[in-house]
Amino acid sequence: MDKIFLHGMQAQTLIGVYEWERQNKQTIVFDLDIGIETPQVPTDDIGTTVHYGDVCARVRADVAARDFLLLESLAEHVARFLFESFDKIVWLRLRLCKPGILPDVREVGVEIERSRPAPLGRVSD
Ligand SMILES: Nc1nc2c(c(=O)[nH]1)N=C([C@H](O)[C@@H](O)CO)CN2
Fold it and tell me: Coiled-coil stretches, from where to where (predicted)?
């Protein structure tokens, strides 16, 4: 498995448990590591990998149109969204930080690690 990463990616979404957080979108910082199927034969073809620009654009557009209470829910949603949107992704680690949310704390956030769910088998399998 090879990995692609997007670290320090900023995205806007409506998130938070407090009323004052429900008024405006906040910036969330994503550290995303993506494991992809490694081509059996090395190629120089963008079609054999995952375009990190597409990942960035798709995630930003998706979360901008949604709202969440917890960072945990946002992380779980993004993990599922990535598996559904990019069939070459087999594993991911996602760390989300809310910058400046607690005084005198450098970084606050959550981290999850997920593998692509196995496809559902047929009843006769
Ligand atoms: N485990 C979590 N704790 C907290 C979250 C969260 O998303 N996950 N969120 C908040 C508030 O929304 C925070 O942004 C303001 O302090 C508090 N704790």
Answer: none
How far does residue 60's CA lie from ligand 1's centre (Å)?
21
Summarised one tens digit per residue, pLDDT across range 60-69 is 999 999 999 9
How far is Cα 102 from Cα 83, in angstroms, rounded to an integer?
32
| Total number of domains constituting the chain | 1
pLDDT above 90 for 119: no
User: Do 95 and 110 contact (CB within 8 A), yes or no?
Assistant: yes
Q: What is the pLDDT of residues 35-45, one digit of tens each?
A: 998 878 878 99
Tell me if residue 88 is catalytic: no
Say if 24 falls within a structural domain: yes
Residue ID of nearest Cα to ligand 1 atom 13: 16
The preferred substitution site among 20, 28, 68, 98 for testing ligand 1, maximizing ligand atoms within 8 Å of CB, is 98
Query: What's 74's domain CATH number?
Result: 3.30.1130.10
